[in-house]
Amino acid sequence: MTIYSEKNPLRFYVYAYLRTDGTPYYIGKGSGRRAWEEHRRGCRGVSTPTTSSRIVIMERNLTNFGALALERFYIKWYGRKDVSCPNHPPGILHNRTDGGDSTVGYKWKNPRIGKTSPRYNHTIFCWEHIESGICVSSTLANFIESHHIGKAVSRLIDNKITSYKGWHIKGRPVAPERCGEDNPNYNYTLYDWHNTISNELHRLTRHAFANRFGIKYYNVSNLLRGKCRVHKGWRVVR
Description:
- By secondary structure, the protein is of the alpha+beta class.
- The chain is built from four helices and nine strands.
- It has helices at 64-78, 140-147, 206-213, 217-225, and strands at 12-18, 24-30, 55-62, 125-129, 135-138, 167-169, 191-195, 201-204, 234-236.
- The strands form three sheets. The protein has a three-stranded antiparallel beta sheet with strand order 2-1-3, covered by helices on one side. A three-stranded antiparallel beta sheet has the order 5-4-6.
């Protein structure tokens, strides 16, 4: 058996991406234009060099079997940066596997999710709805999934809030909900609001303006922060 092919010189080859100092940072096996294609997808993979002089074809005219074997050889020769042992320091390659067209040797960042994860909270809480009085006993994850409620409900466990969307943990005190001017963080600053369509002009606080004209709070905040100049004809007079 031979590892070289006589039919198509560029059918399979082994390539390397070089740093500016000439050392390789990635070894791969490919065919056609594989070595010159972009390898990075989102936040995963390595970046293809911008200059063709840093893309080197190390071995060509190979069979598929031969390319896989040589890819494994070169990765083992230069070593991977994410693999080290007491007698051997880490290598110089950013490869995440040992090569050979497989995921053998890949270091999974989060191999366990859900109930198999060591961070999964198995504690059973008694969730009570304040208005209806309904009580549900379940873990945090099951409660969020079954009631389609936001993950912010986890702040109830840390005692950062006492109720969330009418739910609280039974047995814990519930602080009276304070909104509007009863809230200690209420902003009493008056702003001049001008409507470019009707030419109205009002001097109101941000909350009073939002409640009076039915504008959502985050749209009011965007007007005050300058993220948008006009919303539904309204603008802030500076």
